[in-house]
Amino acid sequence: MPELLPEHKKRITPKRPRDYLCWAAAIAVVAGLVYTTVTNENYQWPVVFSYLTTRSILDGLLLTLVLTVVSMGLGTLLGLLLAIMRMSHQPPISGLARLYITFFRGTPVLVQLIFWFNIAALYPNVSLGIPFTDISNPVDVNALMTPLTAAIVGLTLNEAAYMAEIIRGGFASVNRGQYEAADSLGMSGFTRLRHVIIPQTMPAIIPATGNQVIGMLKGTSLVSVLGVAELLNSAQSIYARTYKPFRC
């Protein structure tokens, strides 16, 4: 068996009194939190456990996961497009992407959700047709923009702005020589992006995207103000019906 190099050998350090004190303090804090959580009757744990497996809570949990997956998937695709536009050498294209990212990152998500939910007040009907012809198809925005649709649109557009900056940062991490090598092989812009650039950006993009998924999972609670029956809204409905402080 080859001998390990000195830098690969595990360094053993003796325990000092302050190490034991830190462990004791940490255990005491955790034990105190667990004790007060278990013994405090105001939590009403029997009520909590009795409702954890009810149909409304499970349906709310499922809708929360669906909102997270759909909004993250669509937001990532739109963010990729915005990142490509942001890096364009055409000022109008990069300027539009910059304006989009700045606006949606600079305004609260709750305000955006409420705006899309009430968009029918500004545009009651939208006509989709072919320019310079009489062919048109009016759409009732009030019927189209349901609470669930408004939630998906609002979360997706907001998430796209953040994902665009994450993806753009991943593009910036790729060495300029990789772009030049792809160009020298005669690759088109799409082929270069798909086979050369995106695979090399994954180590930089994936950790930040994981943080965004966690944030999106928590951010879905905001759609409860629109009446969407996600997890928080389902728990609040039980509280409103039973007057018992059920928390999820």
UniProtKB/TrEMBL annotation:
Q: How does it sit in the membrane?
A: Multi-pass membrane protein
Which SUPFAM superfamilies does the UniProt record give?
A: MetI-like
Q: Which PROSITE patterns match?
A: ABC_TM1
**Annotated Gene3D superfamilies:** MetI-like (1.10.3720.10)
Please classify the protein's predominant subcellular localization into one broad category. membrane
**InterPro entries named in the record:** AA_ABC_transptr_permease_3TM, ArtM/GltK/GlnP/TcyL/YhdX-like, MetI-like, MetI-like_sf
Q: Which UniProt keywords apply?
A: Amino-acid transport, Cell membrane, Membrane, Transmembrane, Transmembrane helix, Transport
Transmembrane segments in this chain: where? 20-38, 58-84, 96-117
| Pfam families with a match to the protein in the record | BPD_transp_1
Location relative to the cell:
Cell membrane
On whether Lipid biosynthesis is a keyword of this UniProt record, the answer is no
Q: Which stretches make up the ABC transmembrane type-1 domain? A: 61-248
Name the protein family: Belongs to the binding-protein-dependent transport system permease family.
Q: Which NCBIfam families match?
A: HEQRo_perm_3TM
What's this protein's name?
ABC transmembrane type-1 domain-containing protein
Q: Which organism is it from?
A: Lentzea roselyniae
